[in-house]
Design goal:
Oligomer: heterodimer
Strand content of chain B: 15-25%
Strand order of the largest sheet of chain A: 3-4-2-5-1-6-7-8
Helix content of chain B: 40-55%
Largest interface: A-B, 19 and 17 residues
Largest sheet of chain A: 8 strands, mixed
Helix content of chain A: 40-55%
Chain lengths: 282, 100
């Protein structure tokens, strides 16, 4: 189904959903995932905003290619120094896509739960269907702020010991330190395994999807294969999901469709068997 | 490459990683998940009470909260000292380190 057809089909129910992209460990692909999932959901016709919660170390603007258009930021809005609509940056490539940048100059404690809650309520009132919260690394206040209002969480994990351990800690926090956990409502948690290298898994050099699922015990959203295209895309400030030729773009699209409730078979988990000639010339 | 290395099967490090993670994740879950915030304080206060009456070794005390089925079990495990004396003994000072 084409994106346009899908857009028409899914336009009926504008219910706001807050999604946190989190991981505990840094450098696993939270910002890349936030940028690509937000872009993918917007491509499907949903009004979407990606919020950068990494105060002092903002990067979502760079990955999304709007760094030169930042005037006001999330902290300005929570402190009443700017209106929300002044801080929202509209994406030039994808309709329905907006970025709310983090402050680069403020202290990381500049955010407070009340202010962030108000911003999220206001975004809902503006008709945003998906509010993607890009969490900072760690499990301190900044990360807890990003997850507090979430209805669903995508835990980004690399098939690597420290990332898996940190993800487990974060899952514990999601189940205890979020608004939903406090009111007894379960938060829906999904596992996204990034930087996956099927060839290394086949050789017994890397934890497999099954291993990580068994260890973490949360529902599986998909795999994003390790890919050079991700770095090249961030060099350009274009989310890789827009580069239709890249395998990793397909992987992110699959994940977006799956997240929106479509049944998509899992791909990129096993190394594709190459024939003799493809191995020579491929 | 040496000839012998060529025939040797490479070590499956992924399974080592999995085994190590299974142990550490289970241990950290027990320590952090399900544990209410007041647990360290409760542990300290309980110890102060018990220490008034019994000589106890702080290292030999564990407090745990377990969840099985729908019920929560607060488990307090204290190894009591061997020699019971005249009762005039002062309670051992609780080390502040315990209060975490």
């Amino acid at each position: 189904m084409g994106l346009r057809a899908r857009a028409r089909r899914t336009k009926e129910a504008p219910v706001s959903k807050v999604i946190v992209i989190t991981s505990g460990k840094g450098g696993v692909g939270k910002t890349t995932t936030s940028a690509n999932i937000a872009t993918g959901i917007a491509l499907c016709g949903h009004k979407t905003v990606a919020i950068d919660f990494d105060v002092g170390l903002r990067n979502l603007d760079l990955v999304m290619g709007c760094e030169r258009r930042v005037v006001y930021d999330l902290v300005n809005v929570t402190k009443g120094e700017a209106k929300l609509v002044q801080a929202l940056i509209r994406d030039k490539r994808v309709e329905n896509l907006y970025v709310l940048p983090a402050s680069q100059t403020r202290d990381k404690d500049a955010l407070d739960f009340e202010g962030v809650g108000q911003v999220i309520d206001e975004l809902k009132a503006l008709g945003f269907e998906y509010i993607i919260c890009d969490s900072p690394a760690g499990i301190e206040k900044g990360a807890q702020m990003a997850m507090y209002f979430a209805d669903e969480a995508i835990v980004v994990t690399n098939p690597e010991v420290s990332s898996v351990r940190d993800s487990d800690r974060v899952i514990g926090l999601l189940n205890s330190k979020t608004s939903r956990a406090e009111t007894g409502d379960a938060i829906q948690i999904h596992l996204l395994l990034t930087r996956y290298a099927p060839l290394q898994v086949a050789k017994g050099e890397m934890l497999s999807v099954e291993d990580v699922l068994e260890l973490l015990g949360i529902p599986f959203l998909g795999v994003i294969p390790e890919s050079k295209a991700v770095l090249m895309a961030s060099n350009k400030g274009t989310p890789v999901i827009l580069d239709e030729t890249a395998e990793v773009a397909q992987a992110y699209l699959d994940v977006v469709y799956r997240f929106l409730g479509e049944d998509r078979p899992h791909r990129f988990i096993h190394e594709e068997k190459k024939g003799f000639l493809r191995r020579l010339f491929g | 490459m040496r000839l012998l290395d060529f025939f040797r099967r490479p070590q499956n490090t992924a399974s080592i990683a999995k085994d190590r993670l299974q142990i550490i994740v289970a241990r950290e879950r027990a320590a952090t998940r399900h544990a209410p915030d007041y647990l360290p304080r409760l542990q300290q206060e309980l110890l102060q009470v018990i220490a008034k009456y019994e000589k106890i070794d702080i290292g030999q005390v564990t407090v745990n909260v377990d969840r099985s089925g729908g019920c929560e079990v607060l488990e307090l495990n204290i190894v009591l000292g061997g020699d019971v004396d005249d009762g005039k003994r002062r309670a051992p000072a609780i080390k502040p380190a315990l209060a975490r």
